[in-house]
Amino acid sequence: MEKEQCSKVVKCALFNGIILKRSTSEDVYKNLFCNASKEKWTTCKRYQVSEKAGKCADWILPNSTLTVDEIIKKMKEKGELV
Ligand code: SF4
Q1: Is there a domain that residue 5 lies in?
Q2: For atom 4 of ligand 1, which residue has the closest CA?
Q3: Is residue 82 part of a domain?
């Protein structure tokens, strides 16, 4: 079966090399989340924050240990979300 990609690949800064600069760790995240099954990419914190807040700051990685609400609170504190 053909693998689907995360529905947010077009705009995602991590997927497009902006955050991890096409490094090995970027490839690892892509394999574990972006290019894996829907069950995987929907667990990505970047995906979850984008779904809830409409955007996701560049300091958030797919496996962040912060909760979605904690991330959104921090984004607001940093002025990254109004
Ligand atoms: S899985 Fe996460 S990191 Fe990958 S494209 Fe989707 S939102 Fe971005």
Answers
A1: no
A2: 34
A3: no
Residue of 3, 25, 34, 68 to mutate, ligand 1, most atoms within 8 A of C-beta = 34
Give the range of the structural domain holding residue 39, as residue numbers without chain letter: 24-77
Residues 23-39 have a mean pLDDT of 97
Does the C-beta of 19 come closer than 6 Å to ligand 1? no
Phi, psi of 74 (to 5 degrees): -65, -40
- Residue 29 maps to a domain: yes
Confirm whether pTM is higher than 0.90: yes
37 has a pLDDT exceeding 60: yes
57 lies in some domain: yes
Domain total of the chain:
1
Name the residue among 81, 41, 80 with its Cα closest to residue 63: 41
